[in-house]
Amino acid sequence: MYFRILLHPFYRGWNIEHKLLSELKTLNIGTYPFQTSIWETAIHLKTLFETNDFHEIRRTYMPNINVQEIKKLAPFHVKKDKLNITTLHELIKNRELMDKLLHLVRFIYEQTHICNPVAKMDLNEWENILLNDDVILDGSYICLSWDSKDILAYSFLHESNKDTSLELGWCGCKNKQDKKLLQTLVLKQVDFAAEQGFQFIEGEFDTTDEYAMEILNSFPFEPSPTWITYQSTVQ
């Protein structure tokens, strides 16, 4: 049960948030847990939830990287290994590889959302979500095995609502020991963004997603507030 508490800032200190939360807990909604998200700078709400049996299930970082700054650092950032890399535009022409990609995307997404499980969907539904979500086919990269029969890693790139930016999307690897491949894919996306005249790439990285966190830890993203998600079971 997703909810948010909104209060005029001039009425803070009147204990209204606590009363709203208490009223919420009296609702008869079955066994669904309560879930909400706040910016880490909302200290009054952070204190409210943490003192009322809510626990943090993840943090989401949403910083930017400057494309030109990354291009300057790139030669020192990752080895220039020769890899078998293709675009999503090319991969969708191969039904077998596309199905393998969708299976991997679904598996990783489900594993990173155990606390709030995703709806059960077949591969066609996953494909529709992926291809209709402003994804940039020529800027989304997939690393293949040398025989081009298997998916090793992927990183998707999306349009943004900002004229100067693009957005990183889902990323992942078939094997955890191959996480460093993501650095190479993102560097190719940096090159793509620069060639298209964009200044920034935006990220959205959940602490429950080890592959997204690998990218966050591998690049000098600009500091930004964190989006914290809390969850509580119904009493």
How big is the Rg? 20 Å
Major sheet? 6 strands, mixed
Average pLDDT score: 89
**Proportion of residues in helical segments:** 25-40%
* Global shape: globular
Q: Widest sheet: strand order?
A: 3-8-7-6-5-4
Structure annotation, total helices: 8
Low-confidence stretches: 76-80
Q: State the secondary-structure class.
A: alpha+beta
Percent of residues in β-strands: 15-25%
Strand elements, count: 10
Q: List SSEs in N-to-C order.
A: HEHEEHEHHHEEEHEEHE
CA-CA gap between termini: 13 Å
List the helices and strands and how they pair.
Layout: H1 16-25, E1 34-39, H2 43-50, E2 55-61, E3 64-66, H3 67-77, E4 84-87, H4 88-91, H5 95-111, H6 123-132, E5 141-144, E6 151-159, E7 165-173, H7 181-195, E8 200-202, E9 205-206, H8 210-218, E10 226-232
Parallel strand pairs: 7-8
Antiparallel strand pairs: 1-10, 2-9, 2-10, 3-8, 4-5, 5-6, 6-7
Helix pairs in contact: 3-7
Which characteristics define this entry?
alpha+beta, globular, 235 residues, 6-stranded mixed sheet, 4-stranded antiparallel sheet, 8 helices, 23% strand
Give an account of the 3D structure.
It contains 8 helices and 10 strands. The chain is 36% helix and 23% strand. The strands form 2 sheets. A 6-stranded mixed beta sheet has the order 3-8-7-6-5-4. It has 235 residues and is an alpha+beta fold. Residues 76-80 have low confidence and may be disordered. A hairpin with a 6-residue loop joins strand 5 (141-144) and strand 6 (151-159). The chain is globular and about 60 Å long. It has helices at residues 16-25, 43-50, 67-77, 88-91, 95-111, 123-132, 181-195, 210-218; strands at residues 34-39, 55-61, 64-66, 84-87, 141-144, 151-159, 165-173, 200-202, 205-206, 226-232.
